[in-house]
Design goal:
heterotrimer; A: mainly alpha; 27% helix; B: 484 residues; alpha/beta; Amidase signature (AS) enzymes; 11-stranded mixed β-sheet; two-stranded antiparallel ribbon; 39% helix
Amino acid sequence: MGRSKKKISAEHTSRLARIELPPSQIPVVQSELESLLDFVGRIEQLDLDSVEPFFGIAIDANPMRTDRQETSCDRTDTLRNAPQTDGESFLVPPVFGKQES
Amino acid sequence: MDLSSFNACQLLDALESQQLSAEDCVRFFLKQIANQNATLNAFYTVVEESAMASAKSVDQRRKKGLPVGPLAGLPIAVKDGICTHNVRTTAGSPMLENYVPFYNATVVERLWEADAILIGKTSMDEFGMGSSTENPHFGGTLNPWDHQRVPGGSSGGSAAAIAAGMAPIALGSDTGGSIRQPAAFCGITGLKPTYGRVSRYGLIAYASSLEQIGPMAKTVEDTALLLSSCAGHDPRDSTSATEPSEDYRAGINRPIEGFRIGVCRDHLENGLSVEITSALKQAIDIFESAGAQIVDIELPNSSNAVAAYYVIAPCEASANLSRYDGVRYTERAPTDNLDQMYSKTRADFFGDEVQRRILLGTFALSSGYYDQYYLQASKVRRLIQQDFETAFNGVDLILGPTTPTTAFKINQCRQDPLSMYLADVYTVSANLAGLPALSLNCGFDPSGLPIGMQLQGPRFKESSLLRAGHLFQSQTDFHNRRPA
Amino acid sequence: MSVKATIIVGLEVHVQLATETKLFCGCATAFGASPNTQTCPVCIGAPGALPVLNRKALKLAIKTGLALNCEIEPNTHWDRKNYFYPDLPKGYQISQFDRPICRKGYLDLIDPQSVSSGRRVNIERAHLEEDAGKSSHDETMQGGPTKIDFNRAGTPLLEIVTQPDLRSGHEAKTFLNELKLILSSLKVSDCNMQEGSLRVDANVNLSLATQEGNQATPIVEIKNLNSFRSVERAIEFEAERQLQQWNKDGMTIDQAPKQTRGWDDSKGHTVLQRIKEDSADYRYFPDPDLVVIRTTQADIESIQAEIKSLPAERRQILMSRYLLPAYDADVLVNQGDTFVDFFETVADQVKDGKLVSNWLQQELLRHLNATQTDIQACPVNANQFVDFLTHIQTNQLDSSRAKDVFEQMMSDSVSVEQAMKSLGIENLDSEELTAICQRVLDENPEIIAQILKGNTKAIGNLIGKTKSLNKNVSPSQAREQILKMLPKH
């Protein structure tokens, strides 16, 4: 079917997924992913151009909610599982980093 | 009183007739856990205090003649991937090791309304990704029938807890076989309901379009009992079905005469051990003599089910697990760099298998590959669904194996993910097609390990599966056998 | 090197929809609450929580789409747009990729002040999506942590994307004004730019007619546009900057990556924010937590029926039924529906559209602006205004005093009679007027003589004297009377 058979890059994919791979692990993960793709790739050969995809949900209702306010959660609950907060907001390392002076 | 031989329905009878107090009942199972959990590791969290308090409340209301729920006083174990308000919920992941939800899953809410008593949270493969519950972070769970073997997974803790008599009944969740495969390995009964039958609200997502929460217990009747309290439309879950749910236990004794049971010869004769094939053939005989008609069917696309599953599930997982970024949920790698907050946190606190599936899914969805993988797999999914539709034009249910083997040894599959994936060969189709499927014990192999039989039905025909399963259990006693 | 440069502009407008609650949960969308107090498991992205669509948000999106002449997708669905950012709770945004609720619409621009009147701007799509939370950075830039507030996370947005059909900053501004007018008229959004209810990004580049044929400069996305005026200025600035850049390096669209630049309003220039080396890989796929939403023809018709006249139609009516010039119609319609309603109510009774329009534009608007009130809170109601104008039309109120009377009506919220009374304005009866004129004629023989000699202008002098005898004298009536009483020659 003339599909490009470009290989997976474990390194690029790990960047996309925000999972740091130590350099020594990259070839290991690379070969694992290649063999898995090899396995799932068996379906690539099937000619399914005329088949409608099925995304798993066969519900015919239009599930929607009314625009009515519900009680929000207590902030202490919302924040309590977070690694770092100031009691009001979640805190993360500075988005723009520290400016060089 | 030794309650470990009681099934859930029997316990409930004893509780209702006040021969047994909820407190004694709960105390018994907590003691069972205390005795065995150090060895089996089926529970990550046990909630003694709140369980005893709830039991006391049920007893008091009963004594006063006040109304109580349909499961009043019945202890229940819940898989640790299902959110419980103020009770730690780890999903088996280091990422959520200390996570305490601030809301209840809808099913937990319904169990609470039914006055069932949560006794603890059961072990699992991380985020449900696995078939062995050999969780490297929290420690593996042992199969009560043979401590050298795995209980199956990912709901291995719930299955082991029931098999070992640590809980009479439990909730699991099933994304590609995660209720049925451990049920088969541990010799118990497990039901994956139709997609949309039970609310997913509060089920920590692995692959949203595939998974369902379902009951696990000693008997089919017990699973029917629990399903009745869990099923039904939930406005908080857009994928929840609006079809009315039923009292599944009420109709369970209806005869199955005239039932047409489909058998896929290919699944029965190839790739199975002799013992499994012969156990299934005996089961077929039992159904035939009960008046069912056996019909040969074909499921031509089932050979591609595992491949399609291992595209779709990782794709969905790759997005579902993006929320674990170090901002809101418990763990964060020490760093003052934002990029590293993400990439180190996710490297340090996700296990290997989870990382592998996230990477696989991320790649399959990445620019230029969507059509080749996700879309193609979703088309295979359509074919599989259509195979079933065709088959169910001629039969009421389909009988086959749950697993290609009985419980495998610890460490046997850990080095080779693919061999683990292939263990799902008979179970993933029901998830891909959204159909209900029941696994029950139908015999033992020569090493005394339980063999699982799977019954699959059309959408929302849980009652057919339960009737057939119940009939089987009323004529056999496999479900009553317990590990030594 | 001289080239003819055409500015090519496409806009992306994010409109916050006027719902009480968020797109997929019941948390409030109110602006300005204390951080993280309007959140729940769903909008905070708690493990296990699931989204359920807000029916009103969908309806408002469809309504907007219909007003923008869009096709409404009968089977719309939801996609996950995957990217990591601390204020994006789930690590993906629920958005719409390949089946947006609205597609292929257009908006015709009528700009009476411009020759480019009658331009059609095509709307590529309008899709629903959830907003992200808010990041507050350490303003000292000393490396302090960034604070994340998820109150805004999950707020419903409609992203309206135009085709690159706009050709100047002014045209972009005209488009945005008209869009805002429509959105306000439909009550789809409060369109408050300060609170972020309306956010605009502009994609700008130049098409250059060179000797080697047509070429295009690299596309720049301008962000941080806080007002329509900024949009206009930023586009004009960017066009100039790109032309200079082109003259310097000659880089075309194919040779340089797309840039994102931020507009600095105080400095009046754009600043490079980032260069998109490889276009972001959002890994869109259908959100398995949500189902396809079906919209029937009947649904569409019932929403269509709720849409009253849109601004363009109202301008047409003002011009055809009330005979207003295009300029007047535009000014009135730009004030919003309530103002036009007020005009129509008054003009229907006064039967002189232009008179009503003049008074509304010159006096009423001036007063409302000065007192910072809007037409809803106008101290004079339509009937009182009709009464006022009728007094002018029937000469019961002389136009020389009309402004004073109007001011009095507005400031005291009173009827025309009450205002005239409190200003001491009464109509003289003809006997009184005759007596006053007679007295002036008697006292000023020399002026009469001048008039009789042909200096007719001197009559104004006499009128002035009548007015100083009694300020209620109407100059036109006095003139008429004096002419009658002048000795014949």
